[in-house]
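Lecture notes, structural biology module. Today: joint structure prediction for complexes of two components.
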Amino acid sequence: MASISVPVGGAPSQSAPRPRLRVSDYLRWSVDHKIIGVQYMVTAAFFFIVGGTLAMLIRWELLTPNLDVVQTGAQYNSLFSAHGLVMIFLWIIPMMAGFGNYLLPLMLGAKDMAFPWLNAFAFWLIPPAGILMIGSMLVGAPEAGWTMYPPLSTLFSGDGQTLAALSVHLLGISSILGAINFLVTVKNMRPAGMSYWQMPLFVWAIVATSIIVVMATPFLAGALTLLILDRIAGTTFFDATKGGDVLLWQNVFWFYSHPAVYIMVLPGMGILSDVLSVHSRKPIFGYKMIALSSMAIGIVGFTVWAHHMFTSLQPEMRIPFMITSMIIAVPTGIKIFSWLGTLWRGKIRFTSAMLFSLGFLSMFVIGGITGVMLAMIPFNLHVHDTYFVVAHLHFVLFGGSVFAIYSGVYHWFPKITGRLLDERLGKLHFALTYIGFFFTFFPMHFAGMLGMPRRVAVYMPEFQGLNATASIGSFVLGISTFLLIYNVIASLRGGRLAGANPWRALTLEWATTSPPPATNFVGEPVMFEDPYGYGTEGAAAYLDAIERQFGAPPQALAADKPASPAAQGASGD
Amino acid sequence: MQGDLAEHRLTPKEELDLKNKRTGLAIFQVSWIMVFFCLMFVHWQIRIQSPDWPPPGVEKLGVVVPSAMTLALIASSLLARRAYRALRAGQIETFLWNWRMTIALGAAFVLVMAFEWLTIPISGQYSNLFRVLVGFHGVHAVVIGALLVRVYRSAMRGAYNSGSFWPVEGAAGLWYFVTIAWILFYAVLYWS
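The predicted structure, tokenised, for the full assembly:
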């Protein structure tokens, strides 16, 4: 298939009926990547609510300097341990996999993933893992944090620690299988006319992520195997009194878990690259640099793990890891400036998707800068294990990954369901999330620099002002989530129809009906030569042809200004 | 060459399918070998903690039997390769004979190493590390060995020929993986 500028299809849309979504399809084994993608996302969203509830309990406890919600420090330990484990392994990583599953074949003009059965199998490992994780909270909860450092996780934590480790083990295997599928799909199933340099940047991000997953996650599998053996089989790999080594865990764990940070944020960066370009009606600035910087982050990400251990490492090992940790800010900076270059003089549409992407840009820069601060050894030694680290990681993982997920949800929900989310509610959701997020986590920087340690339920009274601010912010953040849930439910019940391409985007997933038919495309999809060639006459002609073929968004949408993407898009290509 | 001709007869969909499986298997091999590297790193990290290795009073493992078994495993991999080539060339009898020998040598390796695993004197970290490494590898050898047997049983029913060979190629690929993973562990356990 050659890449031509304008699809030939001139037939009006009536011939293509909109496929109906049935709930029952999503509750059973299916090998359709679209159904699996949604299964991933809905499962992850459920665990987001679980993890969010735990977060609310944590912040409620920290409203006052004394114990009030929980009776003992141990209970508090189990709260934040479960919160971290659930949010990382059952929310962000599966959610990103959900986006990847849904979008990758569509963006590549393929009918499905390379291994549909394996894809379904990878997903169905998650519910049992989730049950194990929730079960772990009930049978002597894990208390060693999501990092599971021995000897806390071997000699002190409850039986739930073993279940949690098994759960993460399963999730790791699920991730690896998913990543193999992504890589094979991208390598072998691109349409004939699509070179690597014509792939959407989300696809590039998934490639970089998948390379990290296949190379790093096996280390987690190895480490967890040893941890489980130490807990149940009487081995002493992590017991320093019996010839073991606690640092061993830290090395092996972070060799996986620092790259895992990029597993969580790179797909978000891919989402951002697509959303920013579409909603500012401009070609992406520095396409190759964004694509290559994803790969660079993936590679350099393997050389920075010991910066998590500056206080425990041999001093002579610190400097090299400081240097690599600072170097990794360079490809990230390239991305940030490329995104700013994309926005520069664009015809920006402040849709909810765009707002969340802009939110990512601002918040992630803060998280990135505190990351460079933490890479500096003297500063790191000062704030090690304080709330400064908590602030940093939440700015990266919530201000980064979760904002990107929200942005992706608003952007692709119309494709997945055929209906638009309500933009007014979406903007309110954004405002509450942005404000709630900022006031939850920004004060933690100060608390940390003043010396408040992380993972404590009882703190010195002088930190109460900062903590109360954070707690109130977090309640706003918690409430904001319900707006999205309500928006999704309301839209599913009777949201406005989206049409095939409500945002007038050029990537291939929009060149089919919303939701796409079971085979994704009717006939061979026709791609535009440049996935980000917005603002050219060729692009406008291509998008008009897509509308002629699949039908324009309904009139009601076009009349609704200024939120209407279609109305602005028509003049803004 | 005959095999390549057979591949040319595939429909585009079958061809893509085969290409996908080959790529997927290659990525899996590169990926999962990392667990073995992880355990090698663990072995190395723990032994440098210990002033003497093996620890005082612990007898060093003998190398003769494991070395013979390593050779057996390597031979079985080479035979698997020959079996696969014979199948692609349409020589079903040669394929079956080589595949049988692959399984026999593989089974010998598994049984002897299981005996070593069971009889090593318990001595703290030294025997623990041995048991974890050999046990972890053994699980892979048993599972993938069972796959070889399954492929053999299908082959006896005539399921494979020069144009239909993926299960053989895939199982052989996994068996190479078992062999390479073992060579890593063998070097670490007996020669470092």
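Point to remember: Chain A has one domain: 32-571.
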